[in-house]
Amino acid sequence: MIRPYTAADYDAVSRICTLTAERGGDATGLYVSDELMPDIFVRPYVSLEPELAFVVEDEQGVAGYIVGVADTRRFVERFTAEWLPRIEAAYEHTEPVVTKDDLIRHLGFWPERMNIPEVDEYPAHLHIDLLPRQQGKGLGRQLIQTLMAALRDRGVPGLHLTMDAANTTARAFYDQLGFTELPSSTPDAPALGMRL
Q1: Quick one: pLDDT at residue 166?
Q2: What's the number of domains the chain is made of?
Q3: What is the sign, positive or negative, of the torsion defined by CA atoms of 132, 181, 99, 103?
Q4: Termini Cα distance of the chain
């Protein structure tokens, strides 16, 4: 069942983020903290724009989620003002970026990265994760359709995402949904967009 996110889902979506953060697999123990990935890729979304968060729930509990924002520029402003102080208090920002851990921490300290060149045409963006027990059942597609409907209701013209190029399964999924590669894509981090 897909339903709107509630504050009671905070710990579950945080854990799912960690369990799916390594190219779709478990990232537990791979970074300076198992809290790092959710602190960057799910918690700010459910904290700052919870009305655009939805979860998949089954008999075992929450098994996946989608989080999004309607206006990436505005989200970057709010992240910087309201969420970045939490990142600064919890993590060291190391330079230069050498390891994958350094890179992920760097992303947390660099919210402006979300303002891709195509952000005016595709102002919304998303993150989505499903545990293996609910993968391959069409729920990822349903989650994206649910978010897209909510964005259309707000008059948002386009949606984008960036991803790890190594996650080829996810790339195939997005291609099937009709996302297309945007000009700002790089070989390591494709940017994909869809008009709404």
Answers
A1: 83
A2: 1
A3: negative
A4: 24
Q: Which of 5-9, 163-167, 171-175 has the highest mean pLDDT?
A: 5-9
The model's pLDDT over 89-117, given as tens digits with 9 standing for 90+, comes to 999 998 888 888 899 999 999 999 999 99
Report the distance separating Cα 194 and Cα 78, nearest Å.
Answer: 24
Q: How far is CA 6 from CA 9, 26, 112, 115, in A?
A: 6, 24, 27, 27
Residue whose token pair is 């330079």: 95
Tokens, residue 174 = 């997005």
CATH code where residue 96 lies? 3.40.630.30
**CB-based contact 160:73 (threshold 8 Å):** no
The residue segments making up the domain with residue 39 are: 2-195
